[in-house]
Design goal:
Largest sheet: 6 strands, antiparallel
Low-confidence stretches: 1-5
Radius of gyration: 15 Å
Order of helices and strands: EEEEEEH
Shape: globular
Length: 104
């Protein structure tokens, strides 16, 4: 990772960012950062946020918020998510979007 700034501390590096508006007006948005240290309690070096929004409401979401670790939102439910790879993360997210009626 590249050091940025005067403090010579490694910074987060953007690895993937996409925002798509689907034909029905729903929104898919994904952002994945490589971070110099895991976001506790996650054990990997990525910080991510993936969301599927319909009519302004989050229907599906995956993230690893500090203090919560890897988890997913599906409708009103929030549950732990077992992160393995960025590719599997995207596959699981898109599968949930399809299951929720998203045409991706």
């Amino acid at each position: 990772m590249e050091n940025l700034g005067d403090d010579d501390v490694p910074k987060a590096e953007l690895r993937y960012k996409e925002r798509r508006e689907l034909a029905d007006g729903s929104i898919l948005q994904a952002t994945i950062w490589e971070v110099p240290a895991p976001v506790p309690p996650s054990q990997h070096g990525l910080k991510y946020s993936l969301v599927y929004i319909v009519n302004g409401i989050r229907v599906v979401g995956y993230d690893n918020e500090r203090g919560k670790g890897d988890h997913r939102h599906y409708g009103p439910r929030e549950e732990p998510y077992s992160f393995t790879t960025p590719e599997q993360l995207m596959a699981d997210f898109l599968a949930d979007v399809r299951a929720a009626g998203g045409n991706v």
